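Protocol check, entry for the methods section draft. Step 1: assemble the input record (protein sequence plus ligand SMILES). Step 2: submit for complex structure prediction. Step 3: store the structure tokens unaltered in the notebook. Ligand used here: pyridoxal-5'-phosphate. Step 1 record:
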Amino acid sequence: MASANSVGTFPTLTTGFPVAVGQPPAAAGLTAETLYDKCMALARNLWWSWHPEVIKLFSDIDPIRWRQLDHSPIALLSTFTPDELETRALELVLQSRINQAYRRLKEYMSERPTWACTNTGVLGSKPVAYFSLEFGIHESVPIYSGGLGVLSGDHVKSASGLGVPMVAVGLFYDQGYFKQHLDADGFQQEEYIDTKVENLPMEPALGPDGEPVAIEIQTRTGPIRAKVWLIRVGRVPLYLLDSDVDGNSAEDRELTSRLYGGDNRIRIRQELLAGVGGVRALKALGITPGAYHLNEGHLAFATLEVVRECMHEDGLSYDEARRKVAQHTAFTTHTPVPAGHDRFNGTLVEEHLGPLRDELGISYNELMALGRVEVNDQNESFCMTVLGLKMSRRANAVSSLHGYVSRRMWANLWPGRTEEQIPIGHITNGVHIPSWLAWQMHQLYDRHFEPHWIGRMGEAEVWQNIHNIDPGELWETHHALKNLLLAFVRRRVSRQCRRRQESDDAILAAQNLLHPDALTIGFGRRFATYKRADLILRDLDRIAPLLNDPDRPVQIIFSGKAHPADEPGKQLIRTVANLRHDPRFANRVVFVEDYDINVARHLIQGVDVWLNNPRRPLEASGTSGQKAVLNGALNLSVLDGWWAEAYDGVNGFGIGKGTRHVDDAIADDRDAEHLFRVLADEVIPLYYDRDVDGLPRAWIQRMMNSISSLAWRFSAHRMVADYVHQAYLPAAGGTSCDMGMR
Ligand SMILES: *Cc1c(COP(=O)(O)O)cnc(C)c1O
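Step 3, stored output:
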């Protein structure tokens, strides 16, 4: 599967859901009569989250409450009685829009034939079970922390769009990930907030008997129990396990409270629940997957439970069952640093997997060997990625470069093979276009692309029409979005100042922050040190004049959280955020707190340049730059992850020459220097090179190059189609090969 992005042709995408899995989506409460019922039905399927006209509808009902309630339609609707809502809909003349949105959802849920009907025949009626520890679908459903979760969300949305039969499995975190505030010193404060379950589009998942599903897992120290929730993401049901149930110890009731919030013991229990518990939940729901897709090593325990099922139900031996399960399993690794892979000691593994191991009839050493590179090394801990690689016949990294890095990293699992023979391929990540494309940009494309282009968004030809758009029109649209971004930043930063009880002057300054005509660079991502948020700020005396050039000003908007345990990451945030106290940077560098899907959406839709400068090759893929592409921002990025295969010299800007250095300090110096040069010599001159109409012609040309060459190629529709062809179909269809792994 080492041929990701070899997707010159892409079939016409019409959509539909060919199979019934578990609860048939058509039965998803779509029998509404009143306007209130219809709004609720819309709110209860996250399909609305990638339909701008439905989002607009909710927002029009009450724009202020909509914002205050974190864009949660159920929370919004719950503030009205049905009668009040009817009255309001009449006042605002919303009836026909509500009716139309509702009709479109119904059509979507029953539409056929689908792309999948003609392309996933062998999957038949058996869905792909997609396992992930986090899902970033919308900011109002806070069960994600960052890139991995957003990727899972986009994957599921595109699977829905393509009609790929899929069920998704994860955990429900009632406190999700933390909310970030900075104190007066710029230190990150973490706040965990209880999510109001009643405001989520979530309901108990019901088994074939109509009863809520519950599961139980034995450990050496007692059982862990969980209930199961259902969230509808278009046509894909997402099942979330939740340990907050009667019968669990107080401690275990909080097991799924927080994402990445605990120690190693909590971690292994979460992964046991998601993996083994997830497989049991599907069983209890009456769902028989045709293939399993494990998104990152966290979920690898699932394979052991499937082996147990096969032994128990099909009478297979352990070895036969293991081969069969590997045949049906695809595994995706995301982490290019060895330390980033989950490892557990033998005691934790035996405590939690012991009873399952008894049922498999294997010894402690045999179990541990499944998670070890050196199977006989008693000192080696149990690695979830190793388990994933050993228990799946198809494994992939998430960009071409990451594939290369992963094959080298895990070469010892296949002794005697050359790098090319290591069976880890790559499928480069992509983003769900309707979720990230600004409504205004969508409108522009609608005017100039062929009708129904959105149904063919994974095809290259569709996007070539961008070159026919009037440059002035594209630039105007971009500027409108940039102004929306600046309004958002001013609102957020002045709120930050108010929270810190700063002076009226400070608040007033925040309300007038930044300038719409200045070249605006965005940097939004996790503040991990290898991402080097401060690279552009390494030499303040050198960058200050560049940012403050009266004729060619530059401003930078930063946003991002550091992991609660990452002190150096928090220090980075502090460094960046406190520049506001330096007059040279007060109106040039801003930090927007609490990076999430909402902040990300504003940033990638409004900036001129999206900056990404990780230490190569530590960025497995990165996806935020792909979102920026859709909206006309230009990437300025180290040639790492997806950008290493995307950059062609005229569709953005590259930092560095695609090489690495063994010494981090030298690499950092070199990249900082190159970033500065590219900025000063290429980016700024190109941006400010205006024609008589004030248009930066060459810049706009580059925007068009970026959109036409990258939007389709780094779309989640292309990504999911690659998974279908390279992973799901082979996994479901029974082609087999011996990977000869130890
Ligand atoms: C897209 C996205 C990410 C991932 O982007 P990277 O380029 O991998 O950093 C992380 N967090 C949020 C909220 C996103 O929307």
